[in-house]
């Protein structure tokens, strides 16, 4: 958090960020604190401050430590500063807050597992980041976890597939174009029959998908089908694998960093930037094609898995049609001799007489129903 004076409000930038809407580190164009950000409107920290009975902010930078106290969104003290020891190189900001009991009238409790899950995601998505989480309570054992994953999305996929049987090592690639960064890691498993696709935009989980997920699925299906047409595994070259067949058993993580994200809705569950789809499609096609050309054994495993998924889908379709056909025949009431045989014993099913004439018509009767031969 900057500590100088904001030119428009004549307040310290700390106070501006903590008390005013539409103020934050993401604003300021090329001079802003972040190249990409999940916040859209600069309201998060100021809202937390307004809903807290007490909030303390500490900023360390340029050899000094700055402190200020707030209550329910209003400053209780001015921004004070102390000089740190010469050997100190502390940098960063610390926010401590206590939720307002007059607003949150039910039990105020921070769930360790929920926070831990979110921090683990952030550590996977940002491999250069180390995050520590500590829960301290009176008369209770201290819970402490540290999260750091140098492998990034590759470790994320491996962690998700920990109890499965992978067909190959995780595939990972990265592309940066027009200021947009695309990171993808994916892996197929032999004992999985559903797909897991997790999408993130600026480290925010987009549970409803978006243009990055659409671009991934489209390019993935197109690329695998292109290899299938040339492969000896696919005997019938006219068969096309659908996206559902291609993704069966696949675990994929895609993370995009977008300078100006366009989320659909305030909950940020879906990304709407159309330019992201084009870049993701290009990235997946180029990198996945290159990898599979260099690893033909992995390609054969993926194609075999996809082909088996197609065969299973066709068999299930035929089974459904057969069940529906039998249901129609059972429900239909045919008159007299045209009705289905009631017995499955051939000895009890009589044969109709053969009528010979200028044309020969033979009626055969089997255990299921009469037919014209």
Automatic annotation (TrEMBL):
GO biological process assignments = DNA topological change
| UniProt xrefs under InterPro entries | HATPase_C_sf, Ribosomal_Su5_D2-typ_SF, Ribsml_uS5_D2-typ_fold_subgr, Topo_IIA, Topo_IIA_B, Topo_IIA_bsu_dom2
Keywords in alphabetical order, please.
ATP-binding, DNA-binding, Isomerase, Nucleotide-binding, Topoisomerase
Annotated protein name in UniProt:
DNA topoisomerase 2
Enzyme's top EC category: isomerase
Q: Which family does it belong to?
A: Belongs to the type II topoisomerase family. Belongs to the type II topoisomerase GyrB family.
Q: Which reaction does it catalyse?
A: ATP-dependent breakage, passage and rejoining of double-stranded DNA
On assembly, the entry states: Homodimer.
Job description of the protein: Control of topological states of DNA by transient breakage and subsequent rejoining of DNA strands. Topoisomerase II makes double-strand breaks.
Which CDD domains does its entry note? Answer: TopoII_Trans_DNA_gyrase
State its Enzyme Commission number(s): 5.6.2.2
Pfam families per the UniProt record, alphabetical: DNA_gyraseB
Domain (DNA topoisomerase type IIA subunit B) ranges: 152-321
Q: Which SMART domains does this UniProt record tie to the protein?
A: TOP2c
Species per Swiss-Prot/TrEMBL record: Aegilops tauschii subsp. strangulata (Goatgrass)
Query: Which GO molecular function annotations are given, in alphabetical order?
Result: ATP binding; DNA binding; DNA topoisomerase type II (double strand cut, ATP-hydrolyzing) activity
């Amino acid at each position: 958090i900057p500590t100088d004076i904001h030119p428009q409000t004549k307040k310290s930038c700390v106070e501006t960020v903590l008390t005013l809407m539409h103020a934050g580190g993401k604003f300021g164009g090329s001079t802003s604190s972040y190249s990409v950000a999940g916040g859209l409107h600069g309201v998060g920290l100021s809202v937390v401050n307004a809903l807290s009975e007490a909030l303390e902010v500490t900023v360390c930078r340029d050899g000094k430590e700055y402190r200020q106290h707030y209550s329910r969104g209003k400053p209780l003290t001015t921004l004070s500063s102390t000089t740190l020891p010469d050997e100190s190189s502390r940098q960063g900001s610390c926010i401590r807050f206590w939720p307002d009991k007059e607003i949150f009238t039910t039990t105020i409790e921070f769930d360790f597992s929920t926070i831990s899950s979110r921090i683990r995601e952030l550590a996977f998505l940002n491999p250069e980041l180390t995050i520590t989480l500590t829960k301290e309570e009176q008369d209770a054992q201290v819970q402490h976890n540290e999260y750091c994953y140098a492998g990034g999305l590759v470790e994320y996929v491996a962690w998700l597939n920990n109890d499965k049987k992978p067909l190959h090592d995780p595939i990972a690639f990265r592309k940066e174009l027009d200021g947009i960064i695309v990171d993808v890691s994916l892996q197929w498993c032999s004992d999985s029959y559903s797909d897991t696709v997790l999408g993130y935009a600026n480290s925010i989980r987009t549970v409803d998908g978006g243009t990055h997920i659409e671009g991934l699925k489209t390019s993935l299906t197109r690329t695998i089908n292109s290899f299938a047409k040339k492969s000896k595994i696919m005997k019938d070259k006219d068969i096309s694998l659908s996206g559902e067949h291609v993704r069966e058993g696949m675990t994929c993580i895609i993370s995009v960093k977008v300078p100006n994200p366009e989320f659909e809705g305030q909950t940020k569950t879906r990304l709407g930037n159309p330019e992201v789809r084009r870049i993701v499609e290009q990235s997946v096609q180029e990198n996945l094609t290159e990898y599979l050309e260099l690893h033909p054994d992995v390609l054969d495993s993926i194609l075999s898995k996809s082909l088996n998924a197609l065969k299973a889908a066709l068999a299930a379709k035929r089974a459904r049609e057969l069940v529906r056909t039998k249901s129609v025949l059972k429900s239909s009431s045919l008159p007299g001799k045209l009705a289905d045989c009631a017995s499955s014993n051939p000895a009890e099913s009589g044969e109709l007489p053969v009528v010979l004439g200028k044309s020969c018509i033979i009626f055969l009767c089997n255990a299921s129903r009469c037919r014209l031969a």
